[in-house]
């Protein structure tokens, strides 16, 4: 426009055409006036961003609400707002925000969608100010970022009679569990400060001194969920790989056991995460969020080995152990079988990695599973495309399943 205005002005001067000269002056002046107007603009904006929900399962969408506030005492011009998102969440959202009055607030909302779990940064936000004719623009960026945590897909699992060791706190497990009946209630002598409602009058009459019932404390059942994150034990890439299936299985099993009353210990990549059961933390808004957060960013590890898995198995010897296994050799299965010696219930959800590579299961894999079963493991294969709920329902162990129990133990007043 500036070049066209100058050319028109020069030609009009040569041809002595006053009207064309005026048009040339106007065309050349407009870009200069627009540049001066944008350069003199002093806008002050505050920005805030909310991601709802901040934790979302893979395959679902989340809403991002961007809030702009004009904190200056002068109005702004036309604003172009653009937020920064990873390509896996979709195209970069852009919005046109009309004139913002002084001290006014404007909000814009857009949706992001992620098919793969992970931690995705959102931001920073950039604002572009333009003049009404679109000749000039002024870009400014905020520095703030938020993160969207995409958790693994969780499958509902059926309830099966799993058995696990009871564990907890108290003086003695053997003597703290009382049989049913009033005469078998565990009692002790009265101590200063004990509540009178705890007085056991029948024991008091027999002993001749004031006796009270022992304090009741809950015992909890513990479960250790181990994720086989050895890089060489999995096949495939990204969403179509066996590792993604293993992460989803570990998340589903961990949440299922937590909701059934187990305190969960998750072991992945050599790190340990312990969470209470969802039954005990019923008042919490998200008692299993830590487990999902840890699995959302889990990645295959080159340093992980069968030795780290056997160490994790021994570490979980005080309760139920569930391991999500990748490919396994006979030698590795022998080490896992030896690590289980003297333990309680151990379950292996074994991924048939050959189905991810469209090959038939090798005899080496079948022998490894047989060796685990001979060592006391309960092994259930999981093939590509198979529902975890169907595999989980194959588990049937003796002993009832329960999520909580009440025992008595002596706690000094």
In short:
This protein is α/β, with parallel strands linked by helices and 413 residues long.
Q: Show unreliable segments.
A: 164-184, 397-413
Tally of contiguous helical segments: 10
**Tally of distinct domains:** 4
CATH superfamily of the largest domain: von Willebrand factor, type A domain
Largest sheet: 8 strands, mixed
Globular, elongated, flat, extended or rod-shaped: what is the shape?
elongated
Q: SS-based structural class?
A: alpha/beta
- Topology as a string of helices (H) and strands (E): HHEEEEEEEEEEEHEHEEHEEHHEHEHEHE
Overall pLDDT: 81
Strand content: 25-35%
Helix content: 25-40%
Distance separating the two termini: 89 Å
Question: Can you give keywords for this protein?
Answer:
alpha/beta; 20 strands; eight-stranded mixed sheet; four-stranded antiparallel sheet; disordered C terminus; 4 domains; Immunoglobulin-like; 413 residues
Architecture overview:
This protein is an alpha/beta fold. It folds into four domains: 2-39; 45-151, Immunoglobulins (Immunoglobulin-like, Sandwich), CATH 2.60.40.10; 176-216, no CATH class; 219-405, von Willebrand factor, type A domain (Rossmann fold, 3-Layer(aba) Sandwich), CATH 3.40.50. 27% of the residues lie in helices and 28% in strands. The chain has helices spanning 2-15, 18-39, 173-176, 201-207, 242-259, 289-296, 306-315, 330-339, 363-374, 388-392, and strands at 45-52, 55-57, 61-70, 78-83, 94-97, 105-113, 118-122, 125-130, 137-141, 146-151, 166-167, 187-189, 211-213, 216-227, 262-268, 271-275, 320-325, 346-351, 378-382, 405-408. Strands 11, 14, 15, 16, 17, 18, 19 and 20 form an eight-stranded mixed sheet that branches. Strand 18, helix 9 and strand 19 form a beta-alpha-beta unit. Helix 5 (242-259) packs antiparallel against helix 6, helix 7 (306-315) runs parallel beside helix 8 and helix 8 runs parallel beside helix 9 (363-374). The chain is elongated and about 120 Å long. The termini are far apart. The model is unreliable at 164-184 and 397-413 (pLDDT under 50).
């Amino acid at each position: 426009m500036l070049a066209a205005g100058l050319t028109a002005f020069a030609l009009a001067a040569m041809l002595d055409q006053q009207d064309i000269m005026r048009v040339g002056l106007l065309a050349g002046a407009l870009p200069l006036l627009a540049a001066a107007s944008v350069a003199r603009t002093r806008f002050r904006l505050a920005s805030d961003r909310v991601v709802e929900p901040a934790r979302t399962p893979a395959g679902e969408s989340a809403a991002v609400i961007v809030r702009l506030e004009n904190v200056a005492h002068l109005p702004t011009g036309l604003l172009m707002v653009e937020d920064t998102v990873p390509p896996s969440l979709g195209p970069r959202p852009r919005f046109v925000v009309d004139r913002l009055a002084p001290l006014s607030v404007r909000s814009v909302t857009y949706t992001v969608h992620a098919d793969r779990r992970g931690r995705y940064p959102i931001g920073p936000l950039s604002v572009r100010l333009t003049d009404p004719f679109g000749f000039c623009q002024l870009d400014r960026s905020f520095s703030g970022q938020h993160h969207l945590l995409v958790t693994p897909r969780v499958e509902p699992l059926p309830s099966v009679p799993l058995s696990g060791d009871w564990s907890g706190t108290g003086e003695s497990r053997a003597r703290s569990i009382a049989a049913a009946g009033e005469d078998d209630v565990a009692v002790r002598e009265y101590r200063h400060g004990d509540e009178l409602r705890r007085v056991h009058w029948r024991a008091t009459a027999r002993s001749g001194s004031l006796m009270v019932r022992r304090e009741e404390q809950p015992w909890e059942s513990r479960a250790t969920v181990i994720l086989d994150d050895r890089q060489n034990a999995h096949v495939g890439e990204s969403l179509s790989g066996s590792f993604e299936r293993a992460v989803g299985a570990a998340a589903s099993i961990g949440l299922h056991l937590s909701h059934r009353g187990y305190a969960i210990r998750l072991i992945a990549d050599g790190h340990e995460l312990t969470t209470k059961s969802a039954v005990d933390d019923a008042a919490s808004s998200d008692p299993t969020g830590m487990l999902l957060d840890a699995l959302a960013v889990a990645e295959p590890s080159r340093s992980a080995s069968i030795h780290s898995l056997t160490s994790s198995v021994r570490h979980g010897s005080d309760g139920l152990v569930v391991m999500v296994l990748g490919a396994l050799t006979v030698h590795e299965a022998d080490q896992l079988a030896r690590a289980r010696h003297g333990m309680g219930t151990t379950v292996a959800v074994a991924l048939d990695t050959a189905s991810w590579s469209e090959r038939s299961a090798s005899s080496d894999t079948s022998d490894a599973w047989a060796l685990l079963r001979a060592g006391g493991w309960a092994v259930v294969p999981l093939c590509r495309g198979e529902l975890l709920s169907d595999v989980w329902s194959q588990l049937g162990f003796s002993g009832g399943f329960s999520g909580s129990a009440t025992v008595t133990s002596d706690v000094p007043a």
